[in-house]
């Protein structure tokens, strides 16, 4: 049984195929094409793992409110397909509970953003949210200081995540969007979603052709989608003008 199958690489799939691919029903994959943020697409069939006609899409979401899921889905096309043509339609998914509408806000200065995020965090504390039930995430390590400042201004203790760390009791988790993958929080705020930060300008600058550029934009969108869906009940997304073009999609303005 392989979870997070959308991020399996070529070498990993070869290994898994060698382990169980020769037996009927020897492999079971669970994944979400919308959460593919690490691997460039490739053909599973060419490596001996053919799931065409044998896949099923789960339609009930137990983790994220209807409002957050609906808004995050605006970042992705209504249908996603892999290299082998397996398609995943996202429109029929339903969440089992409702919650407040997510907030998307932009500011003229980083200082104004920090003050607003701090106030939002104080409001969540007043609502009874434990610090460890809150996550604050940014696109890359260069923006972590902005997230830390907002948490401290909100009167809370930040703990910076790394690849091996876990959420600490009594502290707000702070880290990059990549580290948010696999985590869950009652409330999440995504800070510093500015132009040239999301999508990350450094990745765009390395692009050699249009196909690679499309792939960069796709994975950056998926990364924001993953970060948004770490929230169960409350979501705040912020940036400083000029803000990321993806925020228009979240608002439904594109």
Structural summary, described in words:
The protein has a six-stranded parallel sheet. It has a two-stranded parallel ribbon with strand order 1-4. A two-stranded antiparallel ribbon has the order 2-3. The model has no long low-confidence stretch (mean pLDDT 90). It contains eight helices and ten strands. Helix content is 31%, strand content 17%. The chain is α/β, with parallel strands linked by helices.
What is the topological layout?
Layout: H1 10-20, E1 60-61, H2 66-72, E2 79-81, E3 87-89, E4 94-95, E5 103-107, H3 110-126, E6 134-138, H4 144-153, E7 158-160, E8 172-176, H5 177-180, E9 185-190, H6 201-205, H7 210-228, E10 231-240, H8 246-251
Parallel strand pairs: 1-4, 5-10, 6-8, 6-9, 7-8, 9-10
Antiparallel strand pairs: 2-3
Features:
alpha/beta, 17% strand, globular, six-stranded parallel beta sheet, 254 residues, 10 strands, two-stranded parallel sheet
In brief, what are we looking at here?
The chain has 254 residues and is of the alpha/beta class. The protein has helices at 10-20, 66-72, 110-126, 144-153, 177-180, 201-205, 210-228, 246-251; strands spanning 60-61, 79-81, 87-89, 94-95, 103-107, 134-138, 158-160, 172-176, 185-190, 231-240. A hairpin with a 5-residue loop joins strand 2 and strand 3 (87-89).
């Amino acid at each position: 049984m392989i979870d997070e199958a959308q991020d399996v690489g070529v070498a990993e799939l070869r290994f898994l195929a060698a382990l169980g691919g020769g037996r009927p029903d020897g492999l079971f994959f669970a994944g979400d094409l919308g959460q593919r943020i690490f691997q460039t697409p490739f053909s599973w069939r060419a490596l001996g793992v053919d799931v065409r006609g044998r896949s099923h899409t789960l339609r009930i979401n137990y983790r994220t409110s209807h409002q957050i899921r609906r808004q995050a889905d605006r970042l992705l096309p209504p249908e996603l397909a892999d290299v082998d043509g397996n398609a995943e339609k996202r429109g029929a998914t339903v969440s089992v509970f409702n919650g407040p509408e997510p907030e998307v806000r932009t500011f003229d200065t980083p200082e104004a953003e920090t003050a607003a995020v701090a106030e939002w965090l104080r409001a969540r504390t007043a609502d009874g949210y434990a610090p460890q039930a809150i996550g604050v995430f940014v696109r890359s390590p260069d923006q972590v200081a902005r997230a830390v400042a907002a948490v401290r201004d909100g009167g809370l203790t930040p703990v910076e995540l790394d690849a091996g760390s876990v959420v600490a009791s009594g502290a707000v988790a702070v880290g990059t969007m990549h580290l948010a993958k696999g985590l869950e929080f009652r409330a999440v705020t995504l800070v510093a979603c500015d132009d040239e930060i999301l999508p990350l300008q450094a990745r765009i600058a390395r692009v050699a052709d249009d196909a690679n550029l499309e792939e960069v934009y796709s994975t950056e969108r998926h990364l924001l989608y993953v970060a948004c869906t770490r929230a169960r009940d409350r979501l705040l997304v912020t940036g400083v003008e000029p803000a990321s073009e993806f925020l228009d999609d979240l608002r439904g303005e594109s």
